[in-house]
Amino acid sequence: MKEVIKHYSKDNITVVWQPAKCSHSKICFHDLPQVFNPNNRPWVTLSECSEKEVIAQVKKCPSGALSIKQNEEVAMQEKNMQESDTSNTTKVKVAKGGPLLVEGNITITMPDGEEVAKEGMTALCRCGASANKPYCDGSHSKIEFDT
Ligand code: FES
Questions:
Q1: Statement: residue 136 has pLDDT above 80
Q2: CA of 132 to the centre of ligand 1 (A)
Q3: CATH class of the region 6-84
């Protein structure tokens, strides 16, 4: 089956949504409902917020279902901001009945040796039911994982 990938563009950015990766954390529409609203069609409306707000919110997506493509100028500004941020702390939160939420820049080494760089928020499956391991895909709610 062909993977669904949706693109939502405004000026210098494009939000990319891969629904198969979504862990249904609801972080996007709780934190920035004027942009991410599952009751609207399309559910992503970029006209309501600044590019910076949208980029910051997309980086919080724990599953990687939301990602961002930026033009060169915006990407350079982001890179400069990251370089000036001297805090390298990585935080891990255990979500009750859900994934491990890792906040920060990490590198995941897959079983085949591939290294995947992740930034922002990453949700790692803790229940064992995800079809997209090591990432959480929201299956924890189907199996009523409550630990
Ligand atoms: S913790 Fe979410 S699918 Fe396992």
A1: yes
A2: 9
A3: alpha beta
